[in-house]
Structures are given as structure tokens and as C-alpha cells.
Amino acid sequence: MYKVASASEYLVITGVGIGDIKIAKKAWILPGQYCTVFDISPVNYTFEVQAMSAEKLPFVLPAVFTIGPRIDDDDSLLKYAKLISPHDKLSHHVKELVQGIIEGETRVLAASMTMEEVFRGTKEFKQEVFAKVQLELNQFGLLIYNANVKQLVDVPGHEYFSYLGQKTQMEAANQAKVDVVEARMKGEIGSKLRDGQTLQNASKIDAETKIVSTQRQGEGKKEEIKVKTEVKVFENQREAEVAETNAELAKKKAGWAKGAQVAEVEATKAVALREAELQRQVEVMNALTHTEKLKAEFLSKANVEYETKSLLPRMR
């Protein structure tokens, strides 16, 4: 037949064709094979472990462990399957096995510690118990999913924790009284100190204020003198710059006047030269005109004389 396990179950198959056991979520069950179903959901185990410290003082450790198979490891599942196959997970066999491991490791660990060490290091004691119990459960494929250990309890007739608690309370109460007295004393001393410090600080502040005021007045005068000096220096610099600018301007004006005079003289000379040139040209023209006039007169005179000489023989 074909069998399928639910979400929180596994099938354990033995028989023909299987050397040891086979674990599966679903499988065909062949003739000659045997199949059982086991639940892997964790189970809560509640114990009151009685242990004894190194001083032979007994105490009770109330604890609740949530234990189940380690489902993330195939070897652990095989170990758990072999453990649980003949029994139910809630059977006395499994509970006695788990309880025996927890009680044994707790007693061994408690026997190596004094009651004071157990009481003062309760957290470390519990963690050590869990670690040692888990180490033993590994051989059965079991895992501690959660563990809750309550406050350590006295065994009737041995009220160690009760007396220790009363001692702690009395020490705390006495210490509180001492703290109150010390606080009151510190408060009164502090009040006197604050009053004295207030007066001292007030006198110190007055003296420092006067010093600061005098320093500020002196610094103010220094700053005023410094500013006046800087203003005077600036004014002198400005006057020097203005004088330099005026001198430069005067120099440029002189140069400009000289240039103007030179230009005027050059212009006058140029006009005179031009007039002389024109006068020369006029005189040359006049001379040429006179020469031409003389030439014309001489030519006319010569012509007259020639003609006169030519007519005389004819008239004879």
C-alpha cells in the first residue's frame, strides 16, 4: 500500500530490502515490510529536580523543558526513530529518559558549586545545565527547543534561600538607612558648600568684572587711538596721493603748453615760409611777364626797323 505522513509526522519503514530503517514522508509499503508513524512535534516536560550543593545543602530546581527531535539532521532523526519506535512520545519511557538526564547533569553540576555560587550565578548555572543536558540528548537525536527554569526553591527543613533572602533584605534595608544618613549629611554639607561657593563666586565675579571692565576700557582707548592713528595715516596718504596727482597734472599741463607753443611757432614759420614761397613764385611770374614784354617790344622794334630798311630802297 502507499502511505503518506502528515506535516508533523514521519514514516519509519523496516523489513525486506531495508538494511536498518528507512525514514520518509511518503512511500510504498511492499510485502514483507513494516511501517510505523512517529510524531516529531516537541513535548513539554515539567520537573522539580532535587540537587545538593558542595556544602551538602539540598535545593529544588523547578524547570520546564520543551524537547523534540532535531529535524534538520538525518542522523538525529534516525536516532530518535529508534528511540521512539516501540513507544509513544508521551510514554513514561521517554519522559524518564529525559528526566534522568536532566536530574543527573543538574546534580553533578550543583555538587561542584557552593550554595552561594549557585545563588549568585543563577543565570550561569542554568546555562551550564542546559549545555550539559543538550550534550547528552544529542545521542538520542533530541533538541532543547526552549527551557525555562524558575527561581531556586528550598527543600522543607532547609530554608537556606529564605534566610539568604532575608539576609539580603536586611542588608539592603541597613544599607538604605546608611545611604539615607549619608545622603542627608552630604545634602547638609553640600548646602553649606554651595552657600560658601556662592559667596566666593560672587566676590570672584565682582573682582573679575572690575578687571574685565578696566581691561575693556583700556582696550577701548587703545582701539580709539588705533583708529585715530589709522585715520591720520590714511589722510596723510590721501594728501600725498593728491599732491602727487596735482604735480603730475601740472607737469602734464606744462608739457601740453610747451607743445602748444611749439606748434604755434611751427605754424607761424610754416605760414611765413608759405608766404615767401608764394612771393617768390609771384616775382618769378612777374619777371617772366616783364621778359616776355621786353621780348615783344624788342621784336616789334626790330620788325619796324626791318620793314623800314626794306622800304627805303624801293622808295628811291
From TrEMBL:
- The reply on keyword Plastid is no
Tell me the compartments it is located in: Cell membrane; Membrane, Caveola
Keywords of the record, alphabetical order, are: Cell membrane, Membrane
The record places domain Band at 6-183
Q: Does the keyword Metal-binding apply?
A: no
UniProt membrane topology term = Lipid-anchor
Coiled-coil annotated spans:
none
Which InterPro entries did the record assign? Band_7, Band_7/SPFH_dom_sf, Flotillin_fam
Example GO CC term: the record gives:
caveola
Q: Which family, according to the similarity comment?
A: Belongs to the band 7/mec-2 family. Flotillin subfamily.
* Name the UniProt record assigns to this protein: Flotillin-like
Q: What is the lineage of its organism?
A: Eukaryota, Viridiplantae, Streptophyta, Embryophyta, Tracheophyta
